[in-house]
Amino acid sequence: MKKLILLLSLIITTGSFAQQNVNALTIREAVEYALENNLNLSKTEIDKKIVQAQIAEIKGKGLPQINLNGRFTDNFSLVEQQLPAEIVGGTPGTTVGVQFGNRYQVTSGFDVQQELINFKLFNSLKSVKALEELNTLQTLQSKEDLIINVVQVYTQIQIAERQIELLDENNTRTSNLISLSELKLKEGIMKKLDVNQLKVNQSNLSTDIENAIYSKNESIRVLKILLNFPANETLVLTEKLEDANKIMIQDNLTLETNLELMQTNQQIELSKIDEKLVKAEFYPKLNAFFTYNYQGNTNEFKFSGPNYADQFNGTWGLAASIPIFDGFQKRKRVLQKELATEKLETDKKTLELNIQKEYQDAKEQIAVSEIQVKNQKENMSLANENYDGIKLSFTEGIAAITELLDSEFALRQAQSNYLNAQLQLRVSELQLIKASGQLSKLITQN
Fold first, then answer.
1. Which tens digit of pLDDT belongs to each residue from 156-201?
2. Considering the entire predicted model, what is its pTM?
3. Helix 119-187 × helix 27-37 angle, to 10°
4. Per DSSP, what are the bridge partners of residue 293?
5. I need a labelling partner for 133 at 20 to 30 A (CA). Which of 117, 183, 232, 245 fits?
6. CA dihedral of residues 2, 7, 13, 16 (deg, nearest 10)
7. CA distance 408 to 201
């Protein structure tokens, strides 16, 4: 029975693995997948629709505003007015109470309002359109950040995979040495302390491998979130570290295509429109209006017949409003907006300096990293050659265990330096294409 349960569990487990989808992606494919499926990008599309609805709302204010009205009134207790009694044949010098109006009243009609001159409305349209352009830039910024994050995480996974490969090679070498050393220990030509030291090194290597595997898996989980990729499906990266193509870098800085600067320019434009919105309150407004109403009156709850009186009435005209004095409130609000614009202009100058610095830093770092990648690759090869030589001498009993351990440490250090240089090179390339405006230009073109 236990064997049957074990067999069934193995079949179920095997089936679940067989049902998993395996997806293999290059860096380019990962970027394209992220641009199509990332959740944050879908939110930017919603923001875009919100702005479009705001534009339509503002435009709607410039169209005729039409309202239908209807009302039923029961004047169950009419107001009584006091009039001289002699009007109705009463005693002079006295008054008599008279009620005016009818008990029941029905009114209906419609009115139309049309703004003819409203400078604030005109500038509101400009403001919302500028906001739409800013929203477009923010969407581009989200795409740019997403691409950089995907490439960077993809590279981190490549680095982790290469690190695991190198550590596995080191672990295999150490295992072989331990086997050889245990034979020497039995022959009495090697100390137990030296064998123990090799085992300690192997244990440390196993820990490093486990950490590298965890780091790789963690990065894959991060990449799945960026791609909005199903968590229960297997994601395989097909490009290895050494296979990655060099990012094509433009030689010059194009400030006008830098997204941060473009957004700042748009914010300045919005701030200037805000100034105009306040200034528009100084100008007169002109509206056209038209009303047409129906009114019916009766003292009985009957809305037809000889006792029911009704009529139609209508009006049209123009209404103007000219501001004269408001205690200098608008003037102070204009000053606030002007100061806000001035502050943004200062921020723009600071941003330009920072962009230029980031561009130069990244450009210099790329040059340094390229040299370091080349040197560390050669250094890793030399360290590997040195380790093999000392290992051979150790096997023959010529070299001491300390020399072998030192050469192994130097090899692992060279491997680590090589991987760090590769990662720094890719990060610097991404920083450069972002600062130069090259990436935003590519996104816009595609």
1. 999 999 999 999 999 998 898 888 888 888 877 778 888 888 899 8
2. 0.75
3. 140
4. 109, 313
5. 117
6. -130
7. 10
